[in-house]
Amino acid sequence: MSLEKRWIRMILPFAVFAAMAFFIPFTVSVNAAPDISAQIAVVMDFHTGEILYERNMERRHVPASTTKSMTAFITYQEMEAGNLSFDTRIRVSSGAAAFSSDRRQQGSFVPLPAGEYITVEVLLQLLLLPSANAAAVVLAEHISGTEAAFVERMNEVAAELGMYSSFTNSHGALPHHTNAYSMAVLVREFISRYPDILRITAMTHMSFNGTRYNNTNFLLTTVPFAGTDGFKTGTLRQAGWNHSVTAERDGRRIIAVVMNAPDNTARHADARTLLQYGFDELIRRETERAERVRIFWDGSLFPLDAAPIIRYGTIHLPIRAVFERLGYRVEWHRDFGLARVSHASGSDITFFVGRNLAIVNGQAYTAGTPAQIIDGRIFVTMEFIAHATGTTVTWDMDTGVIMFSGGGG
Prior knowledge:
Blueprint: H1 3-23, E1 40-45, E2 51-55, H2 68-80, E3 89-91, H3 94-100, E4 117-119, H4 120-128, H5 133-144, H6 147-160, H7 180-193, H8 197-201, E5 205-208, E6 211-214, E7 228-236, E8 240-249, E9 252-261, H9 264-291, E10 294-297, E11 300-301, E12 309-311, E13 314-318, H10 319-325, E14 329-333, E15 338-342, E16 348-352, E17 357-360, E18 363-366, E19 372-374, E20 377-381, H11 382-389, E21 392-395, E22 401-405
Parallel strand pairs: 10-22
Antiparallel strand pairs: 1-2, 1-9, 3-4, 5-6, 7-8, 8-9, 10-11, 12-13, 13-20, 14-15, 15-16, 16-17, 17-18, 19-20, 21-22
Helix pairs in contact: 2-4, 2-5, 3-5, 4-5, 5-6
């Protein structure tokens, strides 16, 4: 064997190993799956819609009274359109009154007297706290004329939101079908469009006609989970015990949906487990993604003296490290809670820490998330930096590459 061939045989294994190492994909640690009893579940990051955990999330299942979330969503649509307000008084039909007193129906028993006028605010509270079936019927009849017509709208709205659903009633006391993923999508869309809903779903109880009614979401009371402020439970023989729930901590919001838990205790235990898993998993993913971030500005690597952070589903960068590198002067006015960034070209930007408001070259700008102080540094979103500097920005979550292009001081 020639010297050249022996050399090739010696070096080839090392070359192959090096090539394999180069193409090994980025790997991350994985949290153990949550220990729950429910057969169907999903955990979603509110800000991005990313699925953090799922078990049979697309399986058809009976939603029971979590259905009422859609009825409430359409009610808010009507208020947004100017057709209703919280103070609008709606008359209880004889049919709705009879339904409210029919103890043969599954669900909460909240009598609604025929002919009584009830405000939209109170109807929403009845709908979402004690889960009054007839409150759904009253709203449905007023909005669409008949419950059947309202159900058509429920399915139209569900299709618009990308949900799988086949609703047949406005309250969920009679079985129809959806899936856990669809209910998480609905909760996310509801909070995004109408955050006021959390004011109602966070209430622990309400009073109506001299009777106190408690919220069926025990994560607010009996077995509290810090940060919980909604959403809706549901129980039916054909459904088991369901729960859609959301909580917010340190700027992160998690949505969890539990379906077909064996009992009330189990569904709340599962909901707690899934919410905690969601927060832990989201922090883990944020940390790993932030660690592999690399920033390029017009094609050149742009090093920072402080690691970026991820909040609200987007990258936040330290303003001093970014703007001073671009030739800006950065001034921090602690007494006024603002930072001013100016450039010799005349560009002038003011950040208000803790607020979404900023002034960019004399024009007010509302950022998606507020400037914030973390470890003594002011951070703002990459989208805001792009707006302030006249650049465009993209972030590849998988590779960690952030690209600013088209400007920059």
